[in-house]
Structures are given as C-alpha cells and as structure tokens.
Amino acid sequence: MEKSLFSFIWKYSARQQIFILMVTVLSYPVVYVLLELPKLIVNDAVQGDNFPRTILGLDFDQVPYLLLLCFAFLGLVVVSNGLKFYLNVFKGRLGERMLRRLRFELFQRVLRFQLPHFRKVSSGEIIPMITSEVEDVGGFIGEAFALPAYQGGMLVVQIGFIFMQDPLLGLAAISSYPIQGYVIPYLQKRVVILSRQRVRNIRVIADKVGESITGVAEIHANDAAAWHSADISERLYENFRIRYEIFNRKFLIKFLNNFMNQLTPFFFYLIGGYLVIEGNLSIGALLAVVAAYKDLAGPWKELLSYYQMTADVSVKYQTVVENFDPPDIHDIERLTRDEKAELSGDLKFDNVSFSGGAAGQEVMEISLTVPAGTACAIAGPDGSGRSEVLQLAAGLVSPSSGKICIGDHDLDKLTDSTLGREIAYVGGAVHVWTGTIRDNLYYGLRHRPLILPEREGEALKEYKRRVSEAKETRNPLYDIEAVWDDLEAAGADSIHTLDEKALQLLEAVGLDKDIYRLGLQSRFDPSMDDTFAGKILNVRKNLADRIVHEPALEGLVELWHPDRFNASANLADNLFFAVPADPEITMDQVPEMEEVRAFLTETGLDEKLQKVGLKIAETMLELFSNVSGDSGLLGAYSFITQDEIPEFERIVRIGKSEQQRPGLSDADRSRLRGLAFKLVPARHRLGIMTDELRDKVIAARKTFLDTVVKDNPGFVAFDPDVYLPPLTIEDNLLFGRARVDRRDARRRIDDVIRTIVEETGLRRPIIYAGFGYHVGVSGSRLSAGQRRRIALVRGLLKNAKITILDDIATGTTEDDKALRRGLQEILSGKTFLFGTSNADIAAEFDQRFVLDQGRISDKG
Amino acid sequence: MTLETEVEALRKVPLFHGIDETKLRLLAFISDRTEYPAGERLCSQGEEGDCAFIILAGDADVLVHTPEGEKKVAQVSENSIVGEIAILCDVPRTATLVAANNMDVLTVSKDDFLKLLKEFPDISLEVMRTLALRLERTTRDLADARRGAAGG
After folding, report:
1. How far lies B35's CA from each of A299, A565, B32, in Å?
2. CATH topology for the B3-141 domain
3. Mind telling me which residue stretches traverse the membrane in this protein (chain A) (predicted)?
C-alpha cells in the first residue's frame, strides 16, 4: 500500500488533480479581469472623456459604455463564482471517492490479514482507523495540488510585482521567508510527533472502552469499575496533555508568522521611506508596494495553513496505513477469486509445523493421513495443538513448514473460494452474526450474488449509479440485494427444500424445540403467506371451541370478545381493544398518542380514568404506607414503587382536595391515567371496577373502534376472525388471556396449544417463522449452547466435502452421544474431523489421532 | 368480590383474629384470588408446598394416601386456612386437597407471608399464639388419649 499520502493521491487521482489544476489556472484570467474591471469602470467609464469608445468595431457612448462594462462585470461575477462552485463540488466528490477507496482498501486488508495477526490487533483500534482517523484525508485530497499551485502562483505574481517596483523592496518583502522557512518546519516536526502520539493514545482509549463494554459483566462482578475509571481517566489526561502541547505549538507558529508578516512593513516604511526622502522612489510606488504586500499576506497565510494541514493529514494517513501492511498479508486473489477446486482425496499432513506465537499453540513435525470419506477424531487437551491442527486442516492458518494436501491440492495455495466452500469448519469460539436465525443458518451458502434482482426505472438508474461509483473507487460490484443463498451447494432445489433441510439438521442437533418456541414469540406478516395465517385462525377457532366444551379447559381462558369485558386483561387492552400496527409502540405509549388523547378528552373518559387512578393511588398508599421499602412487597405487588411514593402522596393530596384540581400538572394526570390503565380487575380486587364502569368501558370501546381505529392504519382492532400482525403468533393462536384467577392456567393452556399445533401440522410453519427471529447483537438473545448449535447447523448445511468440528458437541450425556452418532450418520461418506479433549468421546470414532504437546502421541 | 369482602372473610379465620384491618387488607391484596371448580386439586400429598390456602367459599376434601388408595379423612370449609404448616416450615404436603364443590380461595405464597411476618411482628405474635394454643390442645388431647389407653 502507498506509504505516503501524496503518492496515494497521485496514483489514484492524477488525472483529476491535473483537471482541477487546469480549471484553477483557467480561472486566473477571470479573477484578474474581475479585479481590473472596477478600476476601468471608475477611471474610464465614469471619469473618462473623449467618448465614444470603440470595441470590436462598435462605438459606445458614455452611458452605454458604462452599461456594457457593468454587465461584463456581472457576467464575470457569475462565471467566476460558477467556476468556484463547480470546482468545489468536483473537489468534494473526488475527496469522497478517494476516501471510499481508501476505507474499502483498509477493510479489505483486514480481511486479508493472517489469522494469527489478529492476536496483535484489536477491533477497538482498527475501527477508528477505518472510520474517523482517515476522515480528514477526504477533505484534503481535493486541495492537495490545486491549493499550493493557486496560492503559490498568486504569491509569485505579487512578489514579482514588488520586485518590478523596486528590487530592494522586493528583497525586504521576502526577507522574513528564509527565517520562517526554517523555524516553522522545525516547530511543525514536533507537532507531527505529538499528533502521532495523540492518535495512538486515542486508539488505546477506543480499545479500552471497547474492552470495557465487552467485559462489563466482569467489571461489575469484580467491582473493578474504579480501576477502569482510573485507567481511562489517566489516558484522557494524557490526551489533554498532548493536545494542549499541540495547541501551544500551533499557535506559536501562527504567532511567529503573524509577527514576521507585520515586521516586514516595518522595513518597507524604513527603507522605502528613506528611498522616497532621498528621491530614489516615488511615493506612489511605495504605496503600491505596501498595498501589494498586503495582498501577499493572504496567499502566504493560506500556504502556511496548507503546510500545517499537509503535515497533519500526512501523519494521520501514515499512522493508519502502517498498520495495514503486515509482511505476511494474504494475496488479494485469496479473497476475490471465484474458481473452486474440487477437494476430493485424502487429507495429508506432511511434516507440518506451526507456531501460534505462544506456548501450547505449536504443532511440531506432524504427519498424518485421513482417507477421503472417513471420520476421524483428533483428541488432545487444550494446549496440545489440537485446535491448531484442525485450523491447519481447514486452511485457516498456514503452516510454517511442511505441507498440507487434500488430494493433489496444497491448502496453502488455495483461495477462500475453495477453502470456504469445500471445507466446513466450526471452531470452539463460534460467532453468530447480528441478524435473523435464517441469516445465520444460510450464512455458509452466501459466497457470491447469484440471482440479480430485476430492476426498472428509478431503481435501475439508482443501481447503475451505484455500480459506476463502485467502479470509480475500485469497490467490488457484488449486489447486496441479490439472492446469495447457493441452493445447489446445499443440495436443495428451492428455498423450501433448503428450509426443510435446515429443519432436519436442527432436529438432528436438538435445536428445533428452541426455534419452535422462538417462532411462537415471533411476528409474521400474513400478506407473505395467506394459508399459514388461515391455519392459525383455524387453530384459534378450534381452541375456542375446546375451551367452551371441554370441562377440563373451561374457564382457563378469557377470550377477546367485542361485547365483553376481559377481567384478566388490563384496562388499556379492554378499552382500546386494538393494538398499534407498529409492534415497537407498546401499550403504555398508546394513551399518549395524539388521536387517543383527543378521544379520551372528548368522551370525558380522561376525567374518569384519572379518578380511577387516584383511587388506586390512594389505596396503594394506604396499603403500603407502613411497609418498609426493602421488604420487597412493594415492588412485587404495588402499582407504585418505593421511589414513587412521595410523588404519589403529593398527587393524592392535591387530587383529594375537592377543588378543580388546579394543582395537578399534565404529567401528574398522565401518571394517574397510567395507573388506571394497568388495572387488571381479576388480579387487583380493589373494588374499583364496578359494573357501571365496566359498561362504560365497553361502550367507549365501541366508540374508540368506530372513531379512531377505523380507517386508521396505525391501529389494528382485535377481531376473532382476523390475523393480527402486531401480535406474536402465540397471542394470535390463543386469542385471549389465560385467567389469572385459575391455578396454572397459562401452563395448562400452553400444553393444549402445543397439542393442537402438532395435530394441525402447524409446527413446521411456526419453526420457519422462528427462522425470522432476530438474534440480537452477535447472537446475544440466544444462549451460548444455542449459538454453538446454530453454528453447527450452519456448517452442516454447507454440505461440504470436509467437515471439521472442534470442541463442538462434546457433552457426555446420552443426548450428546446420540447427537454425535447422528453427526457421523449425516456426514457419512464425507471426510469428518472431530476435535475433542475427551479420550472417551474420541473412542466413539473408528480412527483417532491423539495429540500431546504439539506431537502425535498415539493413533488408532 | 372485592378486597373488603375478602377482609371480612379473613377476619373470621381464627389465625388472623387479632390482626388489624389494614394489615388484613394488605394480606388480601398480596394474595392471589383463585377459583377452583369441583374436582380440581389445590395441592397433592408429598409435593413441596409453597403456599397456604384461605377458603373464602366452598369446601375441600382432605385426602391421604393409604394402601387402598386415596382416602378422605376430613373436609375443610369456609373461613379456614389450610396448608399453613408448609409455609412456616419446609415439609412436603401432608395431604391432598380436592375441591368438593366450586371454591373461591385466597392463595398466600410462602415468600409473601414470611415477608409480611417480618414486616409486622404483631402478626407473627398472633400466629405464634394460635399455634401455641393448637399445640397446647394437641398435647392435652394426646395426654387424654394416653390416659384413656392406660385406663382402658
């Protein structure tokens, strides 16, 4: 990669830089004429005589001449500003493109690092390098050549002008330049060193912050917050110190520059004045020189700040780029090649040595052969070199000596396109990507875009633009919106068979039950699959029938009924009898929505709800007033927490005084409303829910549905005959609430749902719906075991010729044993390496190699 | 039924005799109000007990295991508390409770009851007094029984 900023800029934008330069030079005459015209207008058109003037053979009188010149001036103003605008946009675009190219190049280099290199670099350091640290480079690139050329040209012209007036004055004008030329770089050098320190320090801070976030549980578990705070605080002080020193020097440079610039006029007046007195220089010339010198200050200042910026940006560029150029970086071909070699044949290690850089990570002179299509256990405790051998076999790391071959192919010479498709490797530390379960399962099939989406009109134009930009910046042309799932590789002929295959494998690894549960909790869009929604509605009806007719189920559930009050649901559900179409909006937020507030006020319900809330608050305060906060009773049962008690005491005091409640603020009212909405009559038997209120709620529900919900895309009304997309599948199946006043109602009804779902064949679609479950950041919403199993299925789904598992499925229970038998069966006829630290587990395999301290100690 | 009616019912339970009304209201509020249709089990002999039942309405049969199967040994009815032994000391349920007719029951979980005792020592005192009375009566019964056995 280009070591210096300027060679990077020149290499990738020479043509554009020359273009910018040329346009800049073109603008010289325009600027010059623009400066000259006003003089001409004043001196010639306004104050001149002997009209008419002849221009291009046309005669102009004084007024038309003035008009001509003025319009010429106007025209030039437009042209010059237009040029400036065009140039600025051009420079900005160039800068952004170069920045994109640079960032992508950096990212691609990260992908090309050898795996052991990641022991030395952390994401906390790399991320700011690619994102913020190179940011300034983009702004600089457009100016890199044009600015010094333009301002330098200006400077030369002005100096030339002064020299033409008087060489001595010319010398005086540039007398301070040599000193500045010596002192400023000297000071700047120190600034550059400090800038480097600053960048490094910030990287360490980023790294430490990142580490604190990853290990936040450890920090709390060990009460180490103080230690980390001290550490970061120290680093921040260091940052302050460096920056302070940089400021000092930067401003010192500025000070020196300003001082020198103002020192020169001193010489002008001294020498020039003397010359004028002596009669060797006209007073007019002296004034002209002083004026010219003033113009000199502008370009000089620009050049100086350009110099400082160049130094700053160059050092940033270098401190970034030097981290992306390790000597052992993979060839770019390794990433970009798309040809796949067939890896059939025996896996052979021939005197292979490898060192991971620490004790217990070496492999010494290992030779072994695993015949094609057989299963083999690689046993050995952690630190025996087992994991290294398996990573070597997967081609993830390169041996330091020796050769690893599959058939005729040397793994070290193969690219990702072969290694990543022909070999499935699942290591002990699996990574689950942020996204859905489906994304994660099919991740191993997404090598290249396969079927490009059809685009028309605007979309096509937009796509073409994207492609041309990618070409400009040497970014890849892969289309992220294309279909990437390689069905053929997985041995499936449609996405449905792929889903089925995935389901089979999930069953084999025992993850299907978990996904089923996630599926019940997930939402699905009925417009995608009408029949599924229809089936769910059938189950709902079936369930409702059974609840009515079977004595064992009777009274376990209160179903949603448009004309009935559901005592097991809270007042909000009962009143609104609808859910927001956006599942992100919770029921708590609904009363604050504008249309709902308006409805509550109009119908007078607002007042009533506040009264209910007030009554609840009063009762709560009365019940819990003598209870201490740490008993835990308050938190578990009250509507109010310990902290809120004083607040509610105030609200109740004001609310009870029979006046018009002037003292209650909007926030207080909203709190009271909130309390009322939380009321579940069957659970909280406060005697507030009178029959009268109940009827009012039902009546209000009807008005609400008619006025607010109807024709409002923001709400979906509860309707026993309609699938409600904002609710989970489970809530759609059981269209009601399990009774809170029946023992174990929820569990019992769940059992019933499960059997009905099994009977109606809905289990499968629900699992597929579970594929759409979002696993959270790096799979944080899954358990560690689930993550490993998903990674395992991902590996198996690749249907690769060689499957390598390390420290996966190594439990000792009967289920785990069955799982391993299942794995051998699934992978029969394929090469299968299984890494484990347990000798008994290894004994389940026909072939074994036992590793100890990097050597093979036993085989069988 | 509301808290007020539940408090009325609680007041009739001998264990809560001397406890003032606000505390009974709190007890009622933190308890779960549950309905049991006839035939449903409240608890089973041998399982771990984590709550006591205060019967507000209806009756429950008390069954114990015998070699011949489950046998009814007693019936508990309105305003009695059952299963309270389980929430004071960790013993498995000594009998099975089955609703004889439709029942209305207040269920107090063990954790909450203990919290309540801790919070209001006078309730503990009352509970102690009731238990002591019961112990005294049981001791007397036992003595009578022994005397009867010796005499006969």
Report:
1. 90, 18, 10
2. Jelly Rolls (2.60.120)
3. 18-35, 65-87, 266-293
